[in-house]
Design a protein that fits this description.
The complex is a heterodimer of chains A (434) and B (265).
Chain A: H1 9-15, H2 42-49, H3 64-77, E1 81-85, H4 88-99, E2 105-109, H5 114-123, E3 130-134, H6 139-145, E4 150-156, H7 168-177, E5 182-185, H8 190-193, E6 203-207, E7 221-225, H9 231-234, H10 238-241, H11 252-255, H12 260-272, H13 279-290, H14 292-311, E8 316-320, H15 330-336, E9 344-349, H16 352-361, E10 367-368, E11 378-380, H17 392-397, E12 404-408, H18 414-433
Parallel strand pairs in A: 2-3, 2-4, 4-5, 5-6, 10-11
Antiparallel strand pairs in A: 1-7, 6-7, 8-9, 9-12, 11-12
Chain B: E1 2-5, E2 8-13, E3 25-29, H1 40-47, E4 52-56, H2 72-85, E5 90-96, H3 98-109, E6 116-123, H4 133-141, H5 143-154, H6 169-178, H7 184-194, H8 198-204, E7 209-214, H9 222-231, E8 235-240, H10 247-250, H11 252-263
Parallel strand pairs in B: 3-4, 3-5, 5-6, 6-7, 7-8
Antiparallel strand pairs in B: 1-2, 2-4
The chains are: A alpha/beta (434), B alpha/beta (265).
Chain lengths: 434, 265
């Protein structure tokens, strides 16, 4: 697919969206730590609020530091623009609230982050939005789940916990046959490993907390639009194709023919829900993106070595990583993720719940916590933490076992990581023998 | 709003205002394979500052029906008919790139008894508007490649940093062209390449003319607009720092301020 600008990924990671500060010459992106901006006069103020002139009026709507992040991630994803939000969950909510309301329906992959699952399963029904969950590998099931009131298909590039790869090209085609968009959570892969727009997705969200920031320091999200979905012709998206009383009868899709979705998301969603990103948070995420490709290469390199290491252990029952031939999505991963299938994966330990607990608690370099995508290696044992109330049978229904361990492989020296894991395996073996 | 001509519906953005025949009308015309929303800031401003606005989608582009038009003269005739149908009397014509050729030609065709042409603004203009053979070939053989070339050449910065918060201008331009009929790009560029009526049209236009160019424009170099402006005693030129051919997005305020000073003079 021809690109809009010949500037390459690594250069865009460092420069997109920013020109050196024209006042002081600062090379780094300045942190504009301000809530508001002085108007030249009343007409200027009115013009800003009425979108007759571009610019910043109030930092809940936009901020110069945050705008650099929005433009940079849009450039890296080959989108038209983006909106930075207070978290990945805020980005997901913003997208949904922008294109649908009560009486709508979503078809979602069942292999998604627990927070997203909760939003769909328990929270949105209170607001009249229902969701049908389908395995991302069940293409016919996805097709059959679509109803006349379906307004979105949603999934993750790499699902949780089985590392299911979303067949974006095929599912995008199904979505477009039904004149609805496909939205992809691309948190686990980042634009370095996959660009979902190239495969037909229409909207992308990131939890920028993870690899984009990359250092486990801030919470943030980004919503990106490809600008190719025809909201007008679809006839299903009144919020974009009909006049909106809340903004001078603006019809967003006519006002900005490519950017109508982002326009409404900002002018309504950021104004009314207000889940904006703080400029300092945007700065940290921009710092992270500057080294995104270098970090992702190392994440992948380390992950592959650890997969190989774990496979060689007699304490490990199974490693679930899409680059392994026995993984159900092995072929799809080769097509969609040629640079690597991420650095977050699961494996099953022999010895059940207690062995898993001993293994996790015995590690020193891996940090035991509930996050992924950090420069530091992370580990969690769901059966003794996030899923500790669930029986063995209920765990299996969720696709995990009592011995399932999830790793997010970081950037440490690989020998220190494997030594650490060796120690954990030794402890797990001792527990398993009892 | 939609304007019907010969049972075909054409779209014109009005800033969500109803057309008021008492007011002067500012007419905005987009360039090759683009649409009305290239003028989103400038057209909205005029719509909220005492003018009617018609920012049209050319036939076969975005929200307008109809077949693509293959010559600047045909496009100009279409525009004159639209202005007649919409009952526009006092008119300011504003065009960008191919749209600038088109409003120049339309200005020369307008019947002065039916329409009072108050001003003509040519943004990102040069004449003749010869298209590089490589771009013409790409437009014919591989439109996506042509979109990429045009996007690349239309921006002064290769890494963005434009003033519209949250938007990546290169991505916007690419998307806009891809969302149009894939035949539009070749048809439009060929119309630019083949247009030879510029000198005659300038000779017939009596109203004040404004040229607005980006100083770093690679598609329609500013020096050519300067040369053209010097030939015409009714013309003035404004050059905008730091931007190229996509200047309505690269410097929305710069373009708006130039147009505003000129139209309100």
């Amino acid at each position: 697919m021809p690109r809009p600008i010949r500037t390459r990924f690594d250069t865009l990671s460092l420069h997109a969206g920013q020109r050196p500060d024209p006042v002081h010459g600062a090379r780094a992106v300045p942190i504009y730590q301000t809530t508001s901006y002085v108007f030249r006069d009343s007409d200027h103020a009115a013009s800003l609020f009425n979108m007759e002139r571009p610019g910043h009026a109030y930092s809940r709507l936009s901020n110069p530091t945050t705008a650099v992040l929005e433009e940079r991630i849009a450039a890296l994803e080959d989108g038209i623009g983006g909106i930075a939000t207070s978290s990945g969950q805020a980005a997901l909510h913003l997208a949904i609230a922008t294109i649908m309301g009560s009486g709508s329906h979503i078809v979602s992959s069942s292999a998604i982050y627990g927070g997203s699952h909760n939003l769909f399963e328990y929270t949105l029904p209170r607001f009249g939005i229902e969701t049908t969950f389908v395995s991302p590998r069940d293409i016919d099931g996805i097709r059959q789940a679509i109803r006349p009131n379906t307004r979105l298909i949603f999934g993750e590039t790499i699902g949780n916990p089985g590392n299911d790869i979303m067949n974006i090209p095929v599912i995008a085609e199904i979505a477009h046959e039904h004149k609805i968009p496909l939205m992809i959570d691309s948190t686990f892969t980042t634009p370095y490993l996959m660009k979902p727009f190239e495969h037909g997705a229409n909207l992308i969200m990131h939890s920028a907390t993870k690899f984009l920031c990359g250092h486990g320091t801030v919470i943030g999200g980004v919503l990106v639009d490809h600008g190719r979905f025809d909201w007008e012709t679809s006839g299903k998206f009144e919020t974009l194709s009909e006049p909106y009383s809340g903004f001078h009868e603006m019809t967003f899709d006519e006002e900005m023919s490519q950017g109508g979705f982002l326009l409404r998301a900002r002018r309504e969603g950021m104004r009314d829900f207000g889940a904006c990103m703080a400029p300092t948070v945007a700065f940290y995420i921009l710092q992270g993106i500057e080294t995104l490709s270098l970090r992702m290469q190392r994440h992948i390199e380390n992950a592959r070595k650890i997969v190989e290491f774990l496979q060689s252990s007699d304490q490990v029952e199974e490693v679930s990583y899409p680059e392994l031939p026995e993984h159900p999505d092995y072929e799809l991963a080769k097509t969609l993720l040629p640079r690597g299938a991420g650095s977050i994966f699961s494996f099953s330990l022999k010895g059940g719940r207690k062995a898993g607990q001993a293994f996790t608690e015995g590690l020193e370099v891996f940090s035991h916590l509930a996050n992924v995508g950090d420069a530091k290696s992370l580990i969690i044992h769901p059966a003794s933490t996030t899923h500790h109330r669930m029986s063995k049978e209920d765990l299996e229904k969720s696709g995990i076992t009592e011995g399932t361990i999830r790793l997010s492989v970081g950037l440490e020296d690989i020998d220190d990581l494997t030594e650490d894991l060796s120690k954990g395996l030794h402890l797990a073996k001792k527990v398993a023998r009892k | 709003m939609y304007i019907s001509l010969n049972d075909t519906r054409y779209y014109a953005y009005t800033g969500t205002h109803k057309f008021n025949p008492i007011l002067e009308t500012v007419v905005f015309v987009h360039g090759a394979s683009m649409d009305h929303s290239v003028w989103s800031h400038q057209s909205r401003y005029f719509a909220y500052h005492g003018y009617n606005v018609l920012a049209v989608d050319l036939p076969g582009h975005k929200l307008s029906q109809g077949d693509l038009l293959s010559s600047i003269e045909d496009m100009a005739r279409w525009l004159v008919n639209i202005l007649g149908s919409a009952d526009c009397r006092s008119i300011h014509l504003v065009g960008h790139s191919m749209g600038a050729l088109m409003v120049l030609e339309a200005a020369s065709q307008l019947d002065s008894e039916a329409h009072n042409l108050k001003s003509l603004s040519l943004v990102g203009f040069c004449y003749p508007m010869q298209v590089a053979p490589a771009l013409m070939n790409a437009a014919r053989e591989n439109p996506s490649k042509a979109y990429s070339m045009m996007t690349q050449w239309s921006h002064a910065s290769r890494t963005g940093g434009e003033p519209v918060p949250g938007f990546w201008s290169a991505g916007m331009q690419m998307s806009m062209m891809e969302n149009n009929d894939k035949d539009a790009i070749y048809c439009n560029l060929q119309a630019c390449n083949n247009y030879t009526g510029g000198e005659q049209a300038f000779g017939r236009v009596q109203c004040p003319i404004l040229f607005v160019s980006g100083k770093l424009d690679k598609m329609a170099p500013a020096k050519l607009a300067v040369q053209e402006a010097k030939k015409n005693k009714n013309a003035k030129i404004e050059l905008i720092d730091g931007c190229g051919h996509n200047l309505m997005f690269e410097s929305p305020d710069g373009v708006l301020d130039s147009l505003n000073r000129f139209i309100r003079r």
